[in-house]
Amino acid sequence: MSTNKHDNDTLKNVHRLHDGELDEAQQAEIMEVLKNDPSMEAEARSLREIGEGLRHDTEEALRSLDTEALANEIERRVAEEQASSRSTRLRFLWKPLSFAAAAALVVAIGLHYHYRQSTSSWQPNSVIVENLETFSSKAQIYDTRLDGENEPVKVIWLFEEDSVN
Amino acid sequence: MKARREKPDPLSDLELVERSRDGDSRAFGEVVRRYQGRVFGICFGIVRDREEARDTTQEVFIRAFRHLHKFKGDSSFYTWLYRIAVNLSISTAGKIQRKKTVLYGEFPEALAEAEESDFPTASAPMHPLKALETKELGQQVGTAMEKLSEKHRAVIVLREVEGLSYEEIAEAVDCSLGTVMSRLFHARKKIQKSMKRSREGTME
Taking the model in full, what pTM does it have? Predict the structure, then answer.
């Protein structure tokens, strides 16, 4: 039983030696085994054959491959991929952008009407005097744009009846 | 005397990946040219069909390009790329297997003939006798590979063709070191058995 286990461990170490996965001390130990044990030596040879056969098999397949054509094809598809991802990004951006544009339009229209409404009864750079005829009450004089700015400025002077007369 | 123009050092994988992420398509083209042969080797080793392996190779690079942002650089780029190659190849091999089962399910002889005709061989630039031996060896191993499961094929190709360490294979196929060693061991045992049977058959 223990001999079997020992053989099995040795066999696995022959595989690990083939794979370059043993440290120097272990390598030396297994090399010694290979010298003295024909079955293990045959195993190591068989592993080398499998490796060689597999590499040859792959090289044969690779020889029939047109690498330039394949690379060009991949590059073409990558370019398509890039273009489609750019348009996807634009599609993603379109919604928030259109929403923002619509919101800005609504605000602009609102401001426009608000401005028109608040300035419709005003005459820029003019003076309106109300109740001048009666002067029964306090006269009110309005002016706009006294400061020359766009913002309408409302100024109210209050006159005493006597001072106007 | 003319000053010798020195060739600039080739960019590292990581540099190429960075540039590709920034939208430099030429950088990704360089990645493709650097790795397409190796990726094809892995795909072919697992899929066992040249045309399918070629298509799978293409898909590997497209998928890698799409997911470049996911590559964090914790592992080497090629193990990350090989992981995609292994996963896609295993999936392709599964599809081929299912297709074959449907097509040839009732005619196993037809399947054997179809598989044999899949592998035309080219002449190798070596001593004719040695070339013949290697060619035969390649065919024997190739036939034996077809009898393995995709997971067994993956580890043995990564080890024997790509020369990856156990640790790198574990990363590429997403399993433990123990599993890698076990799969490699059993894959080789199966190949040995199959080759032995084939040699005995030839001698009879």
Answer: 0.70
